[in-house]
Design a protein that fits this description.
single chain, 2 domains, globular, binds adenosine-5'-diphosphate, binds magnesium ion
């Protein structure tokens, strides 16, 4: 196997809360090979975003170590690009200037950065909208602008934290296809947090299933479906088998999450 591009080594992250110390991520370790696509799945509150924020260098005060290409991460890092659920376009910049922004910050000359931005705008399927402003675009299109902007800085690792969660089902399916295609074109090493089992199985080489509180690794599942994958594969027996297997793991954890929610609600309504 190739040298891993990402090493996540015994990460533990705790938060001080009014109810005491909460262990959000508990001893998570895994490696990712260059070009691999790994989905992270688990019930709400199991520590997925916390894990990503540690990998992206947005949190400190954790145990363990994260390294990218052998270099330890100790703060926000150009090697790690992040895309969040809330799209994060700059409303006062048009599409091209949004996408070119990180290149401008990096000091790239104007002609060069516009050309490069154009390439990534094409890649996410927004050609023809270069001069549009975010307010003139749909939510799905704005999310694609965010995606193009993050990709334009050519991160070694792309972290996507439920990037499609706020979008309607059709837009989400189309964006899933886009991500598959980008994955194929760029061989971009990607980690994706999602609630959507179909999306996870369709896109991933491996799926990390997390437990509910504390967030531990429950299972790492290899998805041995052939690539390139089209949406046709979703109807196959092999695909259904993976979805059922992962749902089995997930259901157990989601049930714990629901019970926890209910008892918390009961406590607060008594108080
Ligand atoms: N900054 C913070 N301070 C205190 N608790 C936090 C903080 N961030 C997250 N948590 C808690 O850590 C747990 C995991 O949160 P999170 O990583 O956002 O879960 P997920 O992304 O899987 O839904 C939750 O119980 C959440 O309330
Ligand atoms: Mg989250």
């Amino acid at each position: 196997m190739a040298e891993p591009i990402l090493v996540v080594d015994h990460i533990v992250k705790r938060f001080e809360t009014p109810e005491g110390v909460l262990t959000a991520v508990d001893d998570v370790s895994f490696t990712v090979a260059p070009g691999e696509f790994v989905a992270v799945i688990g019930p709400s509150g199991c520590g997925k975003s916390t894990l990503f924020n540690v990998i992206g260098g947005l949190l400190d005060g954790y145990e363990g170590r994260v390294s990218v290409s052998g270099e330890t991460i100790s703060g926000p890092h150009a090697a790690v690009g992040m895309i969040f659920q809330e799209e994060s376009t700059f409303p006062w910049r048009n599409v091209i200037d949004n996408v070119a922004f990180p290149l401008e910050i990096a000091g790239m000359a104007k002609a060069e950065r516009i050309e490069k931005a154009r390439h990534f705008v094409d890649l996410v399927g927004l050609n023809g909208f270069e001069r549009s402003y975010p307010s003139e675009l749909s939510g799905g299109m704005r999310q694609r602008v965010s995606m193009a902007r993050t990709l334009a800085s050519e991160p070694k690792i792309l972290l996507m934290d439920e990037p499609f969660a706020a979008l309607d089902e059709q837009t989400r399916l189309l964006l899933g296809d886009k991500v598959l295609q980008i994955q194929q074109d760029l061989k971009q090493t990607t980690l994706l947090i999602t609630h959507n089992l179909t999306e996870a199985v369709q896109l991933s080489d491996r799926i990390l299933v997390m437990t509910y509180r504390p967030g531990r690794m429950k299972r790492m599942v290899d998805i041995k479906l052939p690539r390139p994958r089209s949406s046709e594969i979703v109807g196959s027996d092999a695909f259904g088998h993976y979805v059922a297997q992962i749902w089995n793991d997930l259901r157990e954890e989601a049930t714990k999450g629901l019970k926890d929610d209910e008892s918390r609600r009961a406590r607060t309504s008594r108080a």
